[in-house]
Write a structure and sequence with these properties.
With about 400 residues, this protein is an alpha+beta fold. The chain has helices at about 10-15, 20-30, 45-55, 65-80, 100-110, 120-125, 150-165, 200-210, 225-230, 235-245, 245-260, 265-295, 305, 325-330, 345-350, 365-375, 380-389, and strands at about 5-10, 35-40, 90-100, 130, 135-140, 145, 185-190, 215-220, 315-320, 360. It starts with a strand and ends with a helix.
Length: about 400
């Protein structure tokens, strides 16, 4: 059976109310599909016009379905298109999923529009469909939008690809802030240990970061190449040499004392430590690159392989807002999960210093540097759709 690609839009209201993580958790854990693309959009009216037209092309002779379709049309114009008065654009997140029967699985997990509130589907949990005593709709919030058939989904994916350059990417000027606020951008990588199998972990981590009150303005599914990883983590090499020096010295001293029946001179231990700390740092660095790319640097790798997409994936997110660097770092927690504060991301989800679940930029300068290396603005989302269609 050929793999399908389906999509889900996380609505502006869901993003504002920090429901993004919970929704992503449901999508990954309940569908067991592979997340293959992510991109932020700030749709124009023209994009919504075409998207709505694709929805209205769906033929239905059932009165309820036709009513729901027009309900979505009205919702999209009011909540996705720019504000008619101010021209303010709205943020939406689009996710691509791949797998057997992807469209049907996504539709089932998203759920139908109804007054049910059992909590089984995304719309039952995060959406609202409220009617008055006469059956008139008082309030409608579907939480997410997705395709309902393979043919419809393909048409809609084509529209997403068409507008993904102009209407999507890094939405730096979409959210309004007070003039006095110290607005920053920072990069978060949800690391490969969270994507070894489909689970709710990535969404749970995003849910934790939502406590900062910051805005997601960029999203990308990233398969980091060896070249990218070496540049990204390059500054860590020297840090590893000095940071791990004490550990190396302890190992050298303990090993020599165990091996010989006499005291080992301190100067000799220092000398051996100096010779070994570089080798130890290089090994640790290679382990980081291997973890982030899936490539083992102890084996021969061609220049072509170094530039190729990695074998493992991350989810890259750009957060923006007041004092973003510090807020995200505080919520992330210490590099060593065992030393991280309670309720931080690494305390809850990290395993060890290597598999510590997420990365966050430590300064505005490094945030810009890191986003450039991984190509946060790069439109791989469009390429994925084009190859599928």
């Amino acid at each position: 059976m050929a793999k399908e690609i389906g999509y889900v839009f996380i609505n502006p209201y869901s993003l504002r109310k920090s429901r993004t993580g919970g929704i992503i958790s449901r999508l990954l854990a309940r569908t067991q599909l592979e997340l293959i693309g992510a991109r932020m959009f700030a749709p124009s009216k023209k994009m919504i016009d075409e998207y709505v037209e694709a929805i209205r092309e769906v033929i239905t002779d059932k009165k309820h379905k036709a009513k729901v379709r027009e309900l979505f049309v009205k919702y999209l114009y009011e909540n996705y298109a720019p504000d008619k008065v101010t021209g303010e654009r709205k943020r939406v997140m689009c996710l691509l999923f791949k797998g057997d029967e992807a469209v049907e699985k996504l539709k089932n997990v998203v759920g139908a529009v109804s007054t049910d509130s059992g909590g089984e589907t995304i719309r039952e949990t995060y959406g609202d469909y409220i009617q008055d005593v006469d059956g008139n709709i008082k309030y409608f919030e579907p939480a997410v939008v997705t395709g309902v058939s393979i043919s419809e989904t393909k048409k809609q994916l084509e529209i997403l690809a068409k507008y993904s350059d102009k209407e999507g990417g890094l939405l730096e000027d979409v959210v309004s802030y007070r003039k006095m606020e110290k607005v920053q951008k920072t990069l978060v990588l949800i690391k490969p240990d969270n994507f070894r199998f489909p689970s709710g972990r990535p969404g749970n981590i995003i849910d934790s970061f939502s406590r900062t009150g910051l805005f997601i303005i960029g999203a990308k599914v990233l398969q980091m190449s060896v070249s990218q990883a070496e540049e990204f983590y390059g500054p860590v090499k020297e840090v590893l040499r000095e940071k791990l020096k004490f550990m190396v010295r302890n190992k050298v001293e303990n090993s020599l004392n165990d091996a010989f029946p006499f005291d080992i001179p301190s100067k000799l231990v220092d000398s051996i430590t100096e010779k070994l700390k570089g080798l130890n740092a290089e090994t640790s660095f290679n382990q980081i690159v291997n973890f982030m790319t899936g490539y083992d640097l102890t084996k021969s790798i061609s220049a072509k392989e170094k530039k190729a997409r990695g074998k493992v994936k991350c989810l890259a997110l750009c957060y923006q807002g007041y004092n973003a660097i510090e807020k995200i770092r505080d919520q992330l927690g210490s590099t060593d999960p065992s030393k991280a504060a309670v309720s931080t991301v690494r305390k809850e989800f990290g395993q060890n210093v290597m598999e510590n679940t997420a990365h966050a930029s430590d300064s505005p300068k490094n945030a810009l540097r890191e986003m450039k290396i991984i190509g946060i603005k790069e439109n791989y989302f469009k390429k994925v759709i084009k190859e599928y269609l």
